[in-house]
Write a structure and sequence with these properties.
Elements (H helix, E strand, L loop, with lengths): L1 H6 L4 E2 L2 E2 L1 E9 L2 E7 L12 E5 L8 H4 L1 H14 L3 E7 H17 L9 E7 L8 H9 L9
Parallel strand pairs: 3-6, 6-7
Antiparallel strand pairs: 1-2, 3-4, 4-5
Length: about 150
């Protein structure tokens, strides 16, 4: 599967249109992430590249850098039943998104929320493992909340 992510190929599996997040890179203060989208879903995407600029330098590994694009496309995936594949992801973020999916399923019981987030590697990031800029970045994404200012 990792070869598909590296090549950026999108494919359909068992009749479902899957999304592949790959090539999340940070250059200076700009994050660039790419998503591979099957032909049948491309009309819903204006671009298949996410650019995000930040006002401070950020040092974060790919498990954190993949979060913004995944969060942006997740509601779309829920509506289409698409699975999302990503090479690396923060475990707490994935578990939080799985819980959010369950909550939406409870609110809208007639809708099937069948999307799965498939990460090749889940990382257990914690504040001691992350530097100060990464913690600030994650807090902006809502992943971490400060105990005290």
């Amino acid at each position: 599967m990792r070869d598909r992510w590296k090549q950026g190929e999108a494919c359909s599996s068992m009749g479902r249109e899957d999304l592949y997040i790959h090539d999340s890179r940070l250059v200076g203060r700009t994050l660039t992430s790419r998503i591979s989208v099957p032909r049948g879903l491309r009309k819903y995407f204006k671009s298949r590249v996410l650019f995000a600029g930040y006002d401070a330098d950020i040092l974060a590994d790919r498990s954190i850098l993949n979060m913004p694009l995944l969060a942006a496309v997740l509601p779309f995936a829920w509506l289409t039943g698409s699975d999302i594949y990503v090479d690396e992801l923060d475990r707490t973020f994935k578990e939080s998104m799985d819980e959010l999916k369950q909550m939406y399923g409870n609110m809208y019981p007639r809708t099937r929320f069948t999307t799965h987030i498939n990460a090749e590697v889940l990382f257990d990031n914690n504040i001691s493992r992350l530097d100060r800029s990464s913690v600030s970045y994650a807090m902006r994404l809502g992943r971490l909340t400060p105990a005290h200012e």
